[in-house]
Amino acid sequence: MVRAKENTDHMITVDDLIALVRAYNPKANCERISQAYAFGEKMHQGQYRHSGDTYFSHPAAVAAILTQQRLDDATIITALLHDTIEDTKASFVEIEALFGSEVATLVDGVTKLTNLQLSSHQTEQAENFRKLFIAMSRDLRVILVKLADRLHNMRTIRSILLEKQINKSRETMEIYAPLAGRMGMQWMREELEDLAFRVLNPDARKSIIRRFIRLQRDSGDIIQRISGDMQTELERAKIKAEVFGRAKKPYSIWRKMNQKELGFSRLSDIYGFRIITSSEEDCYATLGTIHRRWRAVPGRFKDYISQPKSNGYRSIHTTVSGTDGKRVEVQIRSQAMHDVAETGVAAHWSYRDGVRVKNPFAVEPEQWISSLTEQFEGRDDHDEFLEAVKLEMYSDKVFCFSPKGDVIKLPRGATPIDFAYAIHTRIGSAIVGAKVDGLRVPLWTRLKNGQSVEIISAEGQTPQRSWLDVATTGKARTSIRRALRERDRGRFIRLGRELARAGFEHVGRRATEKALSISAKHLGLENHEVLLERLGSAEITTHDVIQAVYPDILPSDQDEISPRRAVIGLQHGQSFERARCCGPLPGERIVGISHRGKGVVVHAIDCDLLGEYEDQPNRWVDLNWHEGTHPPIYSTTLEITISNGSGVLGRICTLIGEKQANISDLRFIDRKPDFFRMLIDVELRDVEQLLSLMVTLEADSDVAALDRYRQAATSSQTLS
Q1: Which site in 45, 209, 392, 523 is 20 to 30 Å from 442, CA atoms measured?
Q2: Is-contact 116 132, C-beta < 8 A?
């Protein structure tokens, strides 16, 4: 595969580009590519990038990136012209006349994608995702051009304003990088993530790189040593294969440190090795050779050859450890599998030696798009649609079997509830139990690859609210919420009506249908019945309803301190965020650490993370909380163990409410027959309210343990 090297000093010339295309497609229409190059250069004449380079250097670089995937002439030409309709006087009709309807349609598709604000307000974002999938379903090459466009923009992002860098990097991390991974282009996903990471958390990235350099200095070239050992073992076994090793990207390491709550020094598998064989048979022979020489780590084996991913990805993954205890990840695949692993769904258009490659592992784009979009149909609720899309894009897969032998694909962490809904909504709603590999298991059991799952259902069973705590798939969560809403709607409306009546009477007004309808309109709800339902289910408050109609009638708390001025010691215009690692509350002693692009991060004075900044005194900021009454918006987490008895959880929630604290989230982290251990996020005014709440909870006889939960402190902590 020919790799196009980034050159920020000189624009890629037409001869450079044609050489890259000819390397994999000698039969390419070079005259047509030259014509597109000349047309694009002419249309963008006089336009410049923020870096000072001529604007056309960008489309030329995007086209060069697409040659890495050995794409067809139409896609390369589209890349050269992808900004002409949007940024120049060129029109769709003109491009169609010069380059044909296929190219014109692709250029128009990229233009429409560019105009989508994918990281905007959530409702609009969900709608834009729908448009994104529609564009993908028409021609997947539109997305390939857009991803290459984003990659080049990220490579050259340093030339734009810092605020725009941060916004673009967040959008890249949330949308484009996962999409590239979902399409099978893992190399592009890793580079996009790392480029965004460089902007969003430069200190953490530099820290990881420094530690890598120190590790290399102390232990020598581990990659070369292990690669050589593996190559020797394969030669002894008479297996023809190539071994490639590399250190994982800084963002990949940072993410693993956060997921496992480990420091860098405790991470073992920070090196990855790839073995490319000539056949599928050699893949399994290689696996045996590696496992005979090094110890396999239990639970770290995945066979994506026998169970490929929906984007066509095939490979064997295993993790092994040596006598020194160091772990390394190993991927084993054939050359044909590797070609798909490098280009993903784009392998469908790949050329080699002038002809389209007939790779047996390349998935048909229509088949891939169908598998991605079928589960999003009929999702009218924007939040649910967005949740389903993100779960699908971000999640790894596990493959389980039904009693009939059907393979059910689920995201990692899925439960029997997700399995049941994946088969049919009716089966999911009626589930009362499950058997995994013949053994009865709780419904919150996390399923693993290769397990056989049998669902036990019963007539009369209906979805339970507690299922939302254990379901992970968008389909299951959507179905559960819909069933709960339908079941509870009448009760919520009656309760909401009573709450509205009492609230309006309290301020000397009547909760008429007209007043409620006006309130619903101002709150963006369909009608007054939806408003009453939301009010009864506590999704909105009586205060919200009344204020929407009579904004001046409710007294405001003049004594409450605005969150914007909650901290003393900041410079004029300087922003602040609470650190997620320690979550300081008003009333606690605090200190700030300045971060480029993030303002000041506020830490509790006893936060373990502060030790990492001892040698950077210029970044420390002396801060104090404003004295007075703060609003109850400062989230903190309690780790609590309670007995598993009837009504205990409800009583705990009531006690929290009686202390004027709002529960924003609750999740179980351990379930035993006699005890539950959970994390409860509560919103508080200050540390005094926290201490009062903890004293109240500890006094309850069913509370076995209680503590303030703080995340493991690493320099890569994001903000709360």
Answers
A1: 392
A2: yes
Work out the number of other CB atoms within 10 angstroms of the CB of residue 493: 20
C-alpha span between 179 and 116 (Å, rounded)? 15
86 is annotated as an active-site residue: yes
Q: Which residues pair with 328 in a beta bridge?
A: 320
Calculate the alpha carbon distances from 128 to 112, 115, 135, 237, 418 in Å: 11, 10, 10, 53, 27
Catalytic (active site) residue 406: no
| List 16, 53, 87, 329, catalytic entry | 87
Taking the CA atoms of residue 273, residue 279, residue 282 and residue 286 in that order, the dihedral angle to the nearest 10 degrees is 10
Task: Name the pLDDT band for 387 (thresholds 50, 70, 90).
Answer: low
**What digits encode the pLDDT tens for the residues 462-510?**
888 888 888 888 788 888 888 887 777 787 888 888 888 888 887 778 8
Query: What is the DSSP track for 405-424?
Result: --EEEEETT--HHHHHHHH-
Neighbouring CB atoms inside 10 A of 325's CB total: 8
User: Phi and psi at residue 558, in whole multiples of 5°?
Assistant: -65, -20
CB 689 within 8 A of CB 636: no
Rounded Cα distance between 130 and 385, Å, is: 9
Q: How far apart are CA 559 and CA 348, in angstroms?
A: 64
Q: Which one-letter amino acid corresponds to residue 604?
A: A
Beta strands in 626-713 (DSSP E): 634-643, 662-671, 675-684, 703-709
Residue (of 476, 460, 456) closest to 468 by Cα position: 476
Residues 6+ positions from 507 with CB-CB distance below 8 Å? 546, 550, 553, 554
Q: How many CA atoms are closer than 13 Å to the CA of 278, on its beta-carbon side?
A: 5
Catalogue the E-assigned strands of 431-565. 431-436, 439-441, 453-457
- Prediction pTM value: 0.53
| AA letter at 480 | I
